[in-house]
Design a protein that fits this description.
About 35% of the residues lie in helices and about 20% in strands. Helix 5 links the parallel strand 9 and strand 10 (about 205-210). It has helices spanning about 50-60, 100-110, 115-135, 145-160, 185-200, 220-235, 245-255, 260-265, 285-295, 300-305, 315-320, 340-355, 365-380, 420-435; strands at about 10-20, 25-35, 40-45, 65, 70-75, 80-85, 135-140, 165, 170, 205-210, 235-240, 275-280, 295-300, 325, 395-400, 440-445, 450. The relative contact order is 0.15. The protein is built from 14 helices and 17 strands. With about 450 residues, the protein is an alpha/beta fold. Bound molecules: guanine and fe (iii) ion (FE). Pfam families: Amidohydro_1 (PF01979).
Length: about 450
């Protein structure tokens, strides 16, 4: 017999796959087989009828194939491109003030508590469980200014097996909470220590991200310093931009030499193809062009934008400018840690815009699905590893069950095994609009099952 030239697969699924590609916002593949290799990468995706020849090529038993039920499908794990892990403890509360007052009144006092590692461990463990259960396989986190607690967040993400970018927050000015900021020198040294120590751990899927809080909270010297650190170490960058009108006005006053909010980050070397900026509600077309030229991304955080009454991002305009775009929960400005919620709010926001402007081309469900998955992976420059089902990418996936007894979704007569196309075409719509985390039966990151939770 010919020797196997390929790595044997460790798991093979057969059933319905739903994912996005660049050309097709939602592609539904009925009766496909997907193989995952020993490293957790997708080895093949082929039509179900080829299973016998695949089993010979790849050396698996057809009896070992995991057959999905008719009321189940696999979809890519979702990518939360902007979430404050440290704010999870007060999510769902304190949404009665506009952004700048909200930060000083609620956020900074809470974040200051993370010098206490026991407090940090408690909240961060809950964040990891909650986001994974809700199908977030990749998250881009803000922690706090505290290096050790931020390192702990990285460790907990690694323990639970989530793919994560983790940022130690940098801020050296304009906080009305005097005990919640760092002098420039300390901020620089601690950022370098955070990066060094996190990289030293060699976590498979957890990486540092340079995190100036936003232009309001950072001196020009700090922004320059962070731009240099990101450049020298080829790191991701995250921050906030043009979220709220008062904030935009304040940034103009603080940086009179810069043409725009975007220009502030541009001038400080913080707008790269590994940058993701949250919100962007008030960016001009000119600024969007700069984002496109630089390959920088926007994280659309619709729940937060509505909850803090910050604004509404015109997603269509961002897409028309070919700017990389993902969705973010922005906990706790956004009250929900669920990416399904972010997807729904993104559509709500677009529908409100279409009521105000008949020319606005409403975001389709399929486009929102893509933003929550592939779009997010592009926004974080992780689309070589995750975001959809492509051979060679890591198997980051959700096994969705549309029919949990007592669960939030019902199936109706005529929607059964024999009625495959009706059911499957509606499958994602069904679950994603009507379902919740109860429908997410299993979650995988790089082939490892992370929900139900591993025994730690
Ligand atoms: N801008 C600066 N910091 C924050 C934050 O923590 N949340 C939100 N929504 N916007 C910010
Ligand atoms: Fe935020």
């Amino acid at each position: 017999a010919a020797e196997l030239a390929v790595m044997p697969v460790s798991t093979v699924y057969r059933g319905t796959l739903a994912h996005s590609t660049r050309d097709e916002a939602l592609q539904i593949l009925e009766d496909f087989v997907l193989g995952v290799d020993a490293e957790g990468k997708i080895a093949f995706i082929e039509e179900g009828q080829n299973v016998d020849s695949l089993s010979q090529t790849w050396g698996f038993q057809t009896s070992d194939v995991i057959q999905l039920e008719q009321h189940e499908f696999l979809m890519p794990g979702m990518v939360d491109t902007h979430i404050h892990a440290s704010q999870y403890s007060y999510s769902g509360t304190a949404l009665d003030l506009p952004l700048l007052d909200w930060l000083n009144t609620y956020t900074f006092p809470v974040e200051s508590r993370y010098k206490d590692l026991d407090y940090a461990r408690n909240v961060y463990t809950k964040v990891l469980k909650r986001t994974l259960r809700n199908g977030t396989t990749t998250a881009c986190y803000f922690a706090t200014i505290h290096t050790d607690a931020s390192l702990l967040l990285g460790q907990i993400a690694d323990d639970f097996g989530q793919r994560a970018l983790v940022g130690k927050v940098c801020m050296d000015c304009n906080s009305t909470v005097p005990y919640y900021k760092e002098p420039l020198k300390e901020c620089k040294d601690e950022t370098l220590r955070f990066i060094r120590e996190l990289l030293k751990k060699e976590y498979a899927h957890v990486k540092p991200v340079v995190t100036p809080r936003f232009a309001v909270s950072c001196s020009s010297s700090l922004l320059h310093t962070l731009g240099k650190i990101a450049k020298n170490n080829d790191l991701h960058i995250q921050s906030h931009i043009s979220e709220n009108k008062e904030e935009v006005k304040l940034v103009k006053q603080l940086f009179p030499d810069c043409k725009s909010y975007t220009d502030v980050y541009l001038k400080h070397d913080l707008l790269t193809d590994k940058t993701v900026m949250a919100h962007g509600c008030y960016l001009s077309d000119e600024e969007l062009k700069i984002f496109h030229e630089r390959g920088a991304a926007i994280s659309h955080c619709p729940n937060s934008n509505l909850s803090l009454a910050s604004g509404m991002l015109n997603v269509r305009n961002v897409l028309n400018h070919k700017v990389k775009l993902g969705l973010g929960t922005d906990v706790a400005g956004g009250y929900s840690p669920s990416m399904l919620d972010a997807l729904r709010r993104a559509m709500d926001t677009s529908k409100v815009l279409s009521m105000q402007d008949a020319q606005h081309q409403t975001l389709t469900f399929e486009e929102a699905f893509r933003l929550a998955t592939l779009g997010g992976s592009e926004a974080l420059s992780l689309d070589d590893q995750t975001g959809n089902f492509e051979v060679g990418k890591d198997f980051d996936a959700l096994r969705v069950n549309m029919c949990i007894p007592g669960g939030p979704v019902d199936m109706f007569p005529g929607q059964g095994p024999k009625d495959i196309s009706l059911l499957q075409v509606n499958a994602c719509v069904f679950d994603i609009f009507a379902g919740d985390d109860r429908n997410i039966a299993e979650v995988f990151v790089a082939g490892r099952r992370v929900v139900p939770f591993p025994d730690l």
